[in-house]
Amino acid sequence: MLELNAGLEFPPDRDEEFFSLLPGRAAVCLITSDDSKAEPYLIRSADLRRRLRRLLGTPDPASKRLNLREFARLVRYRETGSAFEQALTYYQNARHFFPKRYARLVRIRPAPVLKINLRNTYPRCFVTRRIVVNEDGTPASGAYYGPFRSRRAAEAFAESALNFFKVRRCQIKIRRDPDYPGCMYSEMKMCLAPCFAGCSKEEYDVEAGRLVQFMDTGGSSLHDALEKEREGASEQLDFEKAAAVHKKIEKLDDALRGQPDLVRRIERLDAVVLQRATEDHTVVLFAMRGGRLQEPFWLHFAETGKPASAEETVRDYLDGISSSPPNTTSNLRQSATELSEHLALLARWFFSNPREGEIFFREKDWPYRRILRACSRLLAPKEAQTETKQAGPESNATRSEDTK
After folding, report:
1. Cα–Cα distance between 341 and 92 in angstroms, integer?
2. How far, in Å, are 9, 78, 80 from residue 19 at the CA level?
3. By C-alpha distance, which of 53, 267, 272, 37 is closest to 145?
4. Which of 177, 219, 273, 401 is the most buried (most CB within 10 A)?
Protein backbone atom coordinates (compact mmCIF):
# COMPACT_ATOMS: atom_id res chain seq x y z
CA MET A 1 0.00 0.00 0.00
CA LEU A 2 1.18 3.51 -0.84
CA GLU A 3 0.99 4.94 2.67
CA LEU A 4 0.94 8.61 3.60
CA ASN A 5 4.60 8.84 4.61
CA ALA A 6 4.87 12.48 5.74
CA GLY A 7 3.00 14.56 8.30
CA LEU A 8 2.79 17.92 10.03
CA GLU A 9 0.81 19.24 12.96
CA PHE A 10 -1.30 22.27 12.11
CA PRO A 11 -0.91 25.19 14.56
CA PRO A 12 -3.53 27.86 13.65
CA ASP A 13 -1.45 30.57 15.33
CA ARG A 14 1.61 29.72 13.14
CA ASP A 15 -0.12 28.87 9.90
CA GLU A 16 2.36 30.67 7.63
CA GLU A 17 5.23 28.61 9.03
CA PHE A 18 3.13 25.49 8.47
CA PHE A 19 2.33 26.39 4.85
CA SER A 20 5.97 27.11 4.09
CA LEU A 21 6.90 23.56 5.10
CA LEU A 22 4.44 21.98 2.69
CA PRO A 23 5.57 20.90 -0.81
CA GLY A 24 4.11 22.79 -3.74
CA ARG A 25 3.68 19.53 -5.65
CA ALA A 26 1.02 16.95 -6.40
CA ALA A 27 0.06 14.88 -3.37
CA VAL A 28 -2.62 12.92 -1.55
CA CYS A 29 -3.43 14.32 1.87
CA LEU A 30 -5.42 13.26 4.95
CA ILE A 31 -6.60 15.95 7.39
CA THR A 32 -7.49 14.70 10.88
CA SER A 33 -8.92 16.27 14.03
CA ASP A 34 -8.36 15.88 17.77
CA ASP A 35 -11.91 14.55 18.06
CA SER A 36 -11.71 10.75 17.83
CA LYS A 37 -15.31 10.60 16.59
CA ALA A 38 -14.71 13.05 13.76
CA GLU A 39 -14.14 11.50 10.36
CA PRO A 40 -10.90 12.53 8.60
CA TYR A 41 -10.91 14.41 5.31
CA LEU A 42 -9.04 12.90 2.33
CA ILE A 43 -8.03 15.02 -0.66
CA ARG A 44 -5.75 14.92 -3.69
CA SER A 45 -4.27 17.98 -5.27
CA ALA A 46 -1.88 19.09 -8.01
CA ASP A 47 -0.37 21.62 -5.57
CA LEU A 48 -0.66 20.64 -1.91
CA ARG A 49 0.53 23.95 -0.46
CA ARG A 50 -1.94 26.00 -2.51
CA ARG A 51 -4.83 23.63 -1.74
CA LEU A 52 -4.22 23.65 2.02
CA ARG A 53 -3.92 27.43 2.04
CA ARG A 54 -7.50 27.51 0.77
CA LEU A 55 -8.72 24.84 3.19
CA LEU A 56 -6.85 25.89 6.33
CA GLY A 57 -6.29 29.61 5.79
CA THR A 58 -8.17 32.38 7.58
CA PRO A 59 -11.82 32.02 6.53
CA ASP A 60 -13.69 34.75 4.68
CA PRO A 61 -17.05 35.40 6.40
CA ALA A 62 -18.61 36.31 3.05
CA SER A 63 -17.47 33.11 1.34
CA LYS A 64 -19.26 29.76 1.36
CA ARG A 65 -16.08 27.87 0.49
CA LEU A 66 -15.25 24.90 2.74
CA ASN A 67 -12.81 25.80 5.51
CA LEU A 68 -11.27 23.25 7.91
CA ARG A 69 -9.16 25.61 10.02
CA GLU A 70 -11.00 24.82 13.24
CA PHE A 71 -11.17 21.11 12.42
CA ALA A 72 -7.60 20.31 11.36
CA ARG A 73 -4.90 19.31 13.83
CA LEU A 74 -2.73 16.87 11.90
CA VAL A 75 -1.98 16.67 8.18
CA ARG A 76 -0.54 13.50 6.66
CA TYR A 77 0.38 13.37 3.02
CA ARG A 78 2.32 11.61 0.26
CA GLU A 79 3.86 13.34 -2.72
CA THR A 80 3.07 11.71 -6.08
CA GLY A 81 5.07 11.94 -9.26
CA SER A 82 2.33 11.08 -11.77
CA ALA A 83 -1.43 11.02 -12.24
CA PHE A 84 -1.40 7.19 -12.11
CA GLU A 85 0.50 7.12 -8.81
CA GLN A 86 -1.85 9.73 -7.35
CA ALA A 87 -4.96 7.83 -8.45
CA LEU A 88 -3.65 4.57 -6.96
CA THR A 89 -2.56 6.29 -3.70
CA TYR A 90 -5.93 7.99 -3.35
CA TYR A 91 -7.79 4.74 -4.04
CA GLN A 92 -5.77 2.65 -1.56
CA ASN A 93 -6.04 5.20 1.26
CA ALA A 94 -9.73 5.83 0.61
CA ARG A 95 -10.35 2.09 0.81
CA HIS A 96 -8.33 1.90 4.03
CA PHE A 97 -9.88 4.86 5.86
CA PHE A 98 -13.40 4.75 4.39
CA PRO A 99 -14.15 1.08 3.64
CA LYS A 100 -17.91 1.65 3.32
CA ARG A 101 -17.94 4.63 0.99
CA TYR A 102 -14.58 4.70 -0.77
CA ALA A 103 -16.15 3.83 -4.14
CA ARG A 104 -18.12 7.10 -4.11
CA LEU A 105 -15.04 9.07 -3.04
CA VAL A 106 -12.87 7.63 -5.78
CA ARG A 107 -15.77 7.59 -8.26
CA ILE A 108 -14.82 4.15 -9.41
CA ARG A 109 -16.98 1.54 -11.09
CA PRO A 110 -15.99 -2.01 -12.02
CA ALA A 111 -14.55 -2.09 -15.51
CA PRO A 112 -16.68 -3.63 -18.30
CA VAL A 113 -15.39 -6.96 -19.58
CA LEU A 114 -16.58 -9.65 -21.99
CA LYS A 115 -17.48 -12.98 -20.45
CA ILE A 116 -17.89 -16.36 -22.13
CA ASN A 117 -19.86 -18.36 -19.58
CA LEU A 118 -18.28 -21.79 -19.96
CA ARG A 119 -20.31 -23.28 -17.13
CA ASN A 120 -23.43 -22.99 -19.22
CA THR A 121 -24.29 -26.00 -21.36
CA TYR A 122 -24.44 -23.71 -24.39
CA PRO A 123 -22.03 -20.81 -23.67
CA ARG A 124 -22.60 -17.30 -24.95
CA CYS A 125 -20.53 -14.11 -24.93
CA PHE A 126 -21.86 -11.02 -23.15
CA VAL A 127 -20.74 -7.80 -21.42
CA THR A 128 -20.59 -7.66 -17.63
CA ARG A 129 -19.02 -5.67 -14.82
CA ARG A 130 -19.16 -8.56 -12.34
CA ILE A 131 -16.26 -11.01 -12.14
CA VAL A 132 -16.59 -14.21 -10.13
CA VAL A 133 -13.34 -15.50 -8.62
CA ASN A 134 -11.98 -18.75 -7.24
CA GLU A 135 -10.38 -19.12 -3.82
CA ASP A 136 -6.97 -18.29 -5.31
CA GLY A 137 -8.35 -15.04 -6.73
CA THR A 138 -8.41 -16.12 -10.39
CA PRO A 139 -11.58 -15.56 -12.46
CA ALA A 140 -14.10 -18.39 -12.28
CA SER A 141 -17.16 -19.72 -14.14
CA GLY A 142 -15.87 -18.71 -17.54
CA ALA A 143 -13.36 -16.71 -19.57
CA TYR A 144 -13.19 -12.94 -19.03
CA TYR A 145 -11.63 -10.47 -21.46
CA GLY A 146 -10.97 -6.81 -20.85
CA PRO A 147 -10.96 -4.20 -19.57
CA PHE A 148 -12.71 -2.01 -22.13
CA ARG A 149 -13.06 1.76 -22.17
CA SER A 150 -16.83 1.58 -21.68
CA ARG A 151 -19.75 -0.80 -21.88
CA ARG A 152 -20.63 0.60 -25.29
CA ALA A 153 -17.12 -0.13 -26.59
CA ALA A 154 -17.29 -3.69 -25.26
CA GLU A 155 -20.69 -4.27 -26.86
CA ALA A 156 -19.52 -2.86 -30.19
CA PHE A 157 -16.49 -5.15 -30.27
CA ALA A 158 -18.54 -8.20 -29.23
CA GLU A 159 -21.13 -7.47 -31.93
CA SER A 160 -18.51 -7.28 -34.68
CA ALA A 161 -16.52 -10.29 -33.43
CA LEU A 162 -19.53 -12.58 -32.99
CA ASN A 163 -20.41 -12.15 -36.67
CA PHE A 164 -17.64 -14.66 -37.40
CA PHE A 165 -19.03 -17.33 -35.08
CA LYS A 166 -22.33 -19.16 -34.78
CA VAL A 167 -22.70 -19.09 -31.01
CA ARG A 168 -26.00 -17.96 -29.57
CA ARG A 169 -26.68 -14.36 -28.53
CA CYS A 170 -30.02 -14.93 -26.81
CA GLN A 171 -30.50 -15.05 -23.03
CA ILE A 172 -33.14 -17.78 -22.94
CA LYS A 173 -32.72 -21.15 -21.28
CA ILE A 174 -31.95 -23.70 -23.98
CA ARG A 175 -34.35 -26.70 -23.92
CA ARG A 176 -33.64 -28.18 -27.39
CA ASP A 177 -37.30 -28.14 -28.45
CA PRO A 178 -37.78 -28.96 -32.19
CA ASP A 179 -41.07 -27.00 -32.12
CA TYR A 180 -39.38 -23.81 -30.95
CA PRO A 181 -39.57 -21.17 -33.72
CA GLY A 182 -36.01 -19.88 -33.22
CA CYS A 183 -34.89 -16.28 -33.76
CA MET A 184 -33.60 -14.03 -36.51
CA TYR A 185 -30.01 -15.17 -35.96
CA SER A 186 -30.92 -18.79 -36.68
CA GLU A 187 -32.94 -17.66 -39.71
CA MET A 188 -29.89 -15.76 -41.01
CA LYS A 189 -27.63 -18.79 -40.41
CA MET A 190 -25.66 -16.79 -37.80
CA CYS A 191 -26.36 -19.26 -34.97
CA LEU A 192 -26.21 -23.06 -34.73
CA ALA A 193 -29.69 -22.87 -33.16
CA PRO A 194 -29.41 -25.27 -30.22
CA CYS A 195 -32.81 -23.95 -29.08
CA PHE A 196 -34.65 -26.14 -31.64
CA ALA A 197 -31.95 -28.85 -31.82
CA GLY A 198 -30.37 -27.38 -34.93
CA CYS A 199 -27.00 -28.82 -33.85
CA SER A 200 -25.57 -31.38 -31.48
CA LYS A 201 -23.94 -30.50 -28.17
CA GLU A 202 -20.56 -31.54 -29.59
CA GLU A 203 -20.92 -29.25 -32.61
CA TYR A 204 -21.79 -26.30 -30.41
CA ASP A 205 -18.82 -27.00 -28.11
CA VAL A 206 -16.48 -26.89 -31.12
CA GLU A 207 -17.86 -23.50 -32.17
CA ALA A 208 -17.61 -22.14 -28.61
CA GLY A 209 -14.03 -23.40 -28.44
CA ARG A 210 -13.21 -21.51 -31.65
CA LEU A 211 -14.56 -18.32 -30.05
CA VAL A 212 -12.47 -18.81 -26.90
CA GLN A 213 -9.35 -19.44 -29.02
CA PHE A 214 -10.13 -16.33 -31.07
CA MET A 215 -10.31 -14.18 -27.92
CA ASP A 216 -7.25 -15.81 -26.36
CA THR A 217 -5.10 -15.08 -29.41
CA GLY A 218 -6.43 -11.59 -30.08
CA GLY A 219 -8.06 -12.79 -33.31
CA SER A 220 -4.91 -14.27 -34.86
CA SER A 221 -6.26 -17.86 -34.77
CA LEU A 222 -9.16 -16.98 -37.09
CA HIS A 223 -7.02 -14.63 -39.18
CA ASP A 224 -4.45 -17.36 -39.84
CA ALA A 225 -7.15 -19.90 -40.68
CA LEU A 226 -8.79 -17.54 -43.18
CA GLU A 227 -5.45 -16.75 -44.82
CA LYS A 228 -4.75 -20.46 -45.27
CA GLU A 229 -8.23 -20.94 -46.73
CA ARG A 230 -7.65 -18.06 -49.18
CA GLU A 231 -4.27 -19.46 -50.25
CA GLY A 232 -5.78 -22.91 -50.73
CA ALA A 233 -8.57 -21.52 -52.88
CA SER A 234 -6.05 -19.58 -54.98
CA GLU A 235 -3.91 -22.69 -55.52
CA GLN A 236 -6.99 -24.57 -56.72
CA LEU A 237 -7.80 -21.63 -59.07
CA ASP A 238 -11.09 -21.04 -57.26
CA PHE A 239 -10.72 -17.28 -57.44
CA GLU A 240 -14.35 -16.59 -56.61
CA LYS A 241 -13.98 -18.34 -53.27
CA ALA A 242 -10.61 -16.66 -52.68
CA ALA A 243 -12.21 -13.24 -53.24
CA ALA A 244 -15.03 -14.06 -50.81
CA VAL A 245 -12.53 -15.17 -48.14
CA HIS A 246 -10.48 -12.02 -48.77
CA LYS A 247 -13.54 -9.86 -48.07
CA LYS A 248 -14.07 -11.83 -44.86
CA ILE A 249 -10.47 -11.11 -43.84
CA GLU A 250 -11.02 -7.40 -44.46
CA LYS A 251 -14.11 -7.44 -42.24
CA LEU A 252 -12.12 -9.27 -39.56
CA ASP A 253 -9.37 -6.65 -39.73
CA ASP A 254 -11.98 -3.93 -39.24
CA ALA A 255 -13.35 -5.75 -36.20
CA LEU A 256 -9.90 -6.28 -34.66
CA ARG A 257 -9.01 -2.65 -35.25
CA GLY A 258 -11.53 -1.74 -32.55
CA GLN A 259 -9.84 -3.96 -29.95
CA PRO A 260 -7.29 -2.03 -27.83
CA ASP A 261 -3.99 -3.62 -26.81
CA LEU A 262 -5.12 -3.60 -23.19
CA VAL A 263 -7.88 -6.16 -23.78
CA ARG A 264 -6.57 -9.57 -22.70
CA ARG A 265 -7.83 -12.63 -20.90
CA ILE A 266 -7.92 -11.36 -17.34
CA GLU A 267 -5.86 -14.10 -15.68
CA ARG A 268 -3.18 -13.58 -18.36
CA LEU A 269 -3.11 -9.80 -18.06
CA ASP A 270 0.49 -9.32 -16.94
CA ALA A 271 1.76 -5.80 -17.55
CA VAL A 272 3.99 -3.10 -16.10
CA VAL A 273 3.22 0.62 -16.06
CA LEU A 274 6.19 2.98 -15.98
CA GLN A 275 5.83 6.39 -14.32
CA ARG A 276 8.24 9.12 -13.36
CA ALA A 277 8.78 9.31 -9.59
CA THR A 278 9.05 12.32 -7.32
CA GLU A 279 12.76 11.63 -6.75
CA ASP A 280 15.32 12.61 -9.38
CA HIS A 281 16.62 9.89 -11.73
CA THR A 282 13.90 7.50 -10.52
CA VAL A 283 11.14 5.59 -12.30
CA VAL A 284 8.29 3.76 -10.55
CA LEU A 285 7.25 0.36 -11.91
CA PHE A 286 3.65 -0.64 -11.24
CA ALA A 287 3.35 -4.31 -12.14
CA MET A 288 0.06 -6.05 -12.80
CA ARG A 289 -0.24 -9.80 -12.27
CA GLY A 290 -3.37 -11.55 -13.47
CA GLY A 291 -5.27 -8.26 -13.61
CA ARG A 292 -4.24 -7.20 -10.09
CA LEU A 293 -1.87 -4.37 -9.26
CA GLN A 294 1.11 -5.48 -7.20
CA GLU A 295 3.39 -3.54 -4.88
CA PRO A 296 5.25 -0.85 -6.87
CA PHE A 297 9.01 -0.77 -7.27
CA TRP A 298 11.24 2.32 -7.38
CA LEU A 299 14.10 2.02 -9.84
CA HIS A 300 16.86 4.47 -8.85
CA PHE A 301 19.17 4.94 -11.81
CA ALA A 302 21.61 6.99 -9.74
CA GLU A 303 22.19 3.87 -7.59
CA THR A 304 22.13 1.19 -10.30
CA GLY A 305 24.77 2.97 -12.35
CA LYS A 306 25.37 0.94 -15.53
CA PRO A 307 22.45 -0.07 -17.80
CA ALA A 308 23.31 -3.74 -17.24
CA SER A 309 22.72 -3.29 -13.50
CA ALA A 310 19.40 -1.56 -14.15
CA GLU A 311 18.29 -4.40 -16.45
CA GLU A 312 19.23 -6.98 -13.82
CA THR A 313 17.24 -5.07 -11.19
CA VAL A 314 14.19 -4.89 -13.45
CA ARG A 315 14.52 -8.60 -14.25
CA ASP A 316 14.62 -9.53 -10.56
CA TYR A 317 11.50 -7.47 -9.83
CA LEU A 318 9.38 -8.62 -12.80
CA ASP A 319 10.48 -12.26 -12.63
CA GLY A 320 9.59 -12.27 -8.95
CA ILE A 321 6.15 -10.86 -9.76
CA SER A 322 5.60 -13.41 -12.56
CA SER A 323 6.58 -16.40 -10.42
CA SER A 324 4.44 -15.45 -7.42
CA PRO A 325 0.63 -15.67 -7.19
CA PRO A 326 -1.33 -12.39 -7.32
CA ASN A 327 -1.93 -10.59 -4.02
CA THR A 328 -5.51 -11.41 -3.00
CA THR A 329 -7.74 -11.19 0.04
CA SER A 330 -9.27 -14.23 1.74
CA ASN A 331 -12.83 -12.91 1.28
CA LEU A 332 -14.07 -13.96 -2.18
CA ARG A 333 -16.44 -11.02 -2.52
CA GLN A 334 -13.75 -8.51 -1.58
CA SER A 335 -11.27 -10.27 -3.86
CA ALA A 336 -13.65 -10.02 -6.83
CA THR A 337 -14.34 -6.34 -6.08
CA GLU A 338 -10.63 -5.61 -5.78
CA LEU A 339 -9.90 -7.29 -9.12
CA SER A 340 -12.62 -5.27 -10.90
CA GLU A 341 -11.42 -2.02 -9.34
CA HIS A 342 -7.78 -2.63 -10.25
CA LEU A 343 -8.86 -3.20 -13.84
CA ALA A 344 -10.91 0.00 -13.71
CA LEU A 345 -7.92 2.01 -12.43
CA LEU A 346 -5.72 0.64 -15.20
CA ALA A 347 -8.38 1.27 -17.87
CA ARG A 348 -8.99 4.82 -16.62
CA TRP A 349 -5.28 5.60 -17.03
CA PHE A 350 -4.81 3.66 -20.29
CA PHE A 351 -7.68 5.40 -22.09
CA SER A 352 -6.90 8.87 -20.70
CA ASN A 353 -5.88 11.59 -23.12
CA PRO A 354 -3.16 12.70 -22.80
CA ARG A 355 -1.69 9.61 -21.16
CA GLU A 356 1.46 9.98 -19.07
CA GLY A 357 3.91 7.11 -18.78
CA GLU A 358 4.19 3.87 -20.73
CA ILE A 359 2.92 0.30 -20.47
CA PHE A 360 4.43 -3.01 -21.56
CA PHE A 361 2.81 -6.44 -21.62
CA ARG A 362 4.30 -9.82 -20.87
CA GLU A 363 3.87 -12.19 -23.79
CA LYS A 364 6.29 -15.11 -23.65
CA ASP A 365 8.68 -12.92 -21.67
CA TRP A 366 9.06 -9.31 -20.60
CA PRO A 367 10.53 -6.87 -23.19
CA TYR A 368 13.37 -5.75 -20.91
CA ARG A 369 15.27 -3.67 -23.47
CA ARG A 370 12.20 -1.72 -24.48
CA ILE A 371 11.35 -1.15 -20.80
CA LEU A 372 14.81 0.35 -20.16
CA ARG A 373 14.55 2.56 -23.24
CA ALA A 374 11.18 3.77 -21.97
CA CYS A 375 12.76 4.59 -18.61
CA SER A 376 15.32 6.74 -20.42
CA ARG A 377 12.54 8.58 -22.23
CA LEU A 378 10.66 9.22 -18.99
CA LEU A 379 13.76 10.63 -17.31
CA ALA A 380 14.63 12.86 -20.25
CA PRO A 381 13.82 16.59 -20.06
CA LYS A 382 10.29 17.61 -21.01
CA GLU A 383 11.46 19.00 -24.37
CA ALA A 384 13.03 15.68 -25.33
CA GLN A 385 9.91 13.77 -24.28
CA THR A 386 7.78 15.98 -26.53
CA GLU A 387 10.09 15.37 -29.48
CA THR A 388 9.97 11.60 -28.87
CA LYS A 389 6.16 11.59 -28.83
CA GLN A 390 6.04 13.56 -32.06
CA ALA A 391 8.50 11.16 -33.67
CA GLY A 392 6.12 8.28 -32.94
CA PRO A 393 6.61 4.80 -31.44
CA GLU A 394 9.66 2.63 -31.90
CA SER A 395 10.09 1.15 -35.34
CA ASN A 396 9.47 -2.53 -36.03
CA ALA A 397 13.16 -2.94 -36.82
CA THR A 398 14.08 -1.63 -33.39
CA ARG A 399 11.59 -3.91 -31.68
CA SER A 400 12.83 -6.95 -33.59
CA GLU A 401 16.26 -6.44 -32.06
CA ASP A 402 14.83 -7.24 -28.63
CA THR A 403 13.80 -10.71 -29.72
CA LYS A 404 17.20 -11.69 -31.05
Report:
1. 11
2. 11, 15, 18
3. 267
4. 273
Distance from C-alpha of 90 to C-alpha of 27, rounded to nearest angstrom: 9
**DSSP tag of 327:** P
Is residue 369 within 8 A of residue 108, CB to CB? The reply is no
Domain boundary among 49, 77, 106: 106
List helix spans (H) across 98-200.
102-106, 151-162, 184-187
Q: Which of 106, 128, 152 is the last residue of a domain?
A: 106
Helices 201-216 and 151-162, packing angle to 10 deg: 130
What is the rounded CA–CA span in Å between residue 269 and residue 266? Answer: 5
How many domains is the chain partitioned into structurally?
Answer: 4
11 close to 18: Cβ distance less than 8 angstroms: yes
Give residue 16's domain range.
Answer: 6-106
Closest CA to 73 of 34, 16, 40, 19: 34
Residue 193 to residues 44, 188, 201, 278, Cα–Cα distance (Å): 54, 11, 11, 58
Q: How far is CA 154 from the centre of its chain?
A: 14
Q: What is the pLDDT of residues 335-360, one digit of tens each?
A: 999 999 999 999 999 999 999 999 99
Report whether pLDDT(390) > 90.
no
For residue 398, what pLDDT band results from cuts at 50, 70 and 90? very low
- Reported as a single tens digit per residue, the pLDDT across 73-87 is 999 999 999 999 999
Residues 246 and 197 in one domain: no
Q: What is the pTM of this model?
A: 0.89
> What is the tens place of the pLDDT at every residue in 222-231?
999 999 999 9
399 is a domain residue = no
Q: Residue 397: pLDDT band by 50, 70, 90 thresholds? A: very low
Q: Which of 127, 135, 136 is nearest to 161 (CA)?
A: 127
Q: How many CA atoms lie within 13 A of 392 on its CB side?
A: 3
8 A C-beta contact, residue 300 and residue 377: no
Contact call for residues 284 and 82 (beta carbons, < 8 A)? yes
* Confidence (pLDDT) at 388: 54
**What residues contact 384, with CB distance under 8 A and at least 6 apart?**
377
Q: Is 10 helix (H, G, I), strand (E, B) or coil?
A: coil
Q: What gap in Å lies between CA 165 and CA 107, rounded to an integer?
A: 37
Rounded to an integer, what distance in angstroms lies between the CA atom of residue 155 and that of residue 142?
A: 18
